[in-house]
Design goal:
two-stranded antiparallel sheet; mainly alpha; 11 helices; three-stranded antiparallel sheet; globular
Length: 309
């Protein structure tokens, strides 16, 4: 699974940036596997999965794994100094922007082996944890944040930032409070109508991250206001002060449920949401933390966000 390998690359790149020599060795091994087995240079995208014995690539292609590999590739360049990994992140981001623009900024997630969109994929399984039918609101926010990170090295900065704004705006319009109750729906159809109205914690976390990132890059008050609104929702409904962490899943009426996720297996999204409001934008969180430390500012919150916090 390229999805699993993406997090090995991200973790080992982060460890390497922190000075762990074992992590640097692991990073080299993981990058070799990702490069040799998953990268499809003719398309500029990563394949999804192989059979267990590496004898054949499975036909499904998807954007979820490519999204996490964009994050991993940026961190890999930060850790190794090799721009080739970041160049791959740029190619993936261009693919996503192209297909999203053709689809009214709702991102097609699923593709066949030839990288042709499959808009009806998993129509009968809309609650899938990783491959749900339709447009995934949280991924639009996550892509918006990552595309801003890629913009500085893309050679098309304005185009990338404008695309990130479009993705963000579409996700807010389609996803927020669609039934009169606060919170983001999980998915919509291709006309923007909600399909799965469950509120997932990671979607809110990515909305926070995208709003903070756009606020820092553009300095526009509307993104600061959104940042505070999304945190207010998380504070009221999703942060679990009795049992710790965040409630991973709520109904459309913001009551705890467990139809998609059971328990609290995910720290990644909520943890990163707390960082985006404190760190200046960078290609990876590890690089941003190092930059803030070297400048003597462990919490380098810009004034516009600091005033609202």
């Amino acid at each position: 699974s390229a999805y699993s390998h993406s997090f090995v690359v991200l973790a080992s790149a982060t460890g390497a940036l922190a000075g762990d020599h074992n992590a640097r060795r692991l990073l080299g091994e993981a990058l070799e596997v990702v490069n040799d087995q998953f990268w499809e240079p003719d398309v500029g995208m990563f394949a999804d999965t192989w059979t267990g014995d590496w004898s054949a690539r499975r036909p499904y292609r998807g954007l979820n794994v490519n999204m996490h590999l964009v994050e991993a590739m940026l961190a890999a360049t930060d850790a190794t100094g090799d721009p080739e990994w970041a160049n791959r992140a740029v190619r993936v981001a261009r693919f996503v922007l192209k297909h999203a623009a053709l689809n009214n900024w709702r991102i097609p997630e699923h593709y066949d082996a030839e990288w042709c969109p499959e808009p009806g994929y998993n129509f009968e399984r809309p609650n899938d944890q990783f491959k749900p039918f339709g447009a995934t609101i949280g991924h639009a926010f996550e892509w918006a944040r990552l595309i801003v990170s890629v913009s500085s090295i893309s050679g098309e900065r304005n185009h990338f930032i404008e695309g990130a704004q479009e993705l963000y705006a579409r996700a807010v319009t389609d996803g927020w409070a669609r039934n009169g109750h606060d919170g983001f729906v999980y998915t919509t159809d291709w006309n923007g109508q909600p399909v799965v109205t469950t509120r997932l914690h990671w979607v809110t976390a990515e909305a926070i991250g995208a709003a903070a990132t756009l606020a820092r890059i553009l300095g526009e008050q509307r993104y600061v206001d959104d940042y505070m609104r999304w945190w207010g929702y998380a504070d009221q409904f999703q942060i679990d002060r009795e049992h710790g962490s965040w409630r991973h899943e709520l109904t459309e009426f913001n009551e705890p449920t467990a139809t998609i996720w059971h328990g609290k297996p995910d720290l990644y999204h909520a943890y990163q949401a707390t960082l985006t409001g404190q760190l200046a934008p960078a290609t990876s969180f590890a690089a941003a933390i190092l930059a803030s430390r070297s400048e003597g500012r462990p919490n380098s919150t810009p004034p516009r966000l600091a005033e609202n916090e």
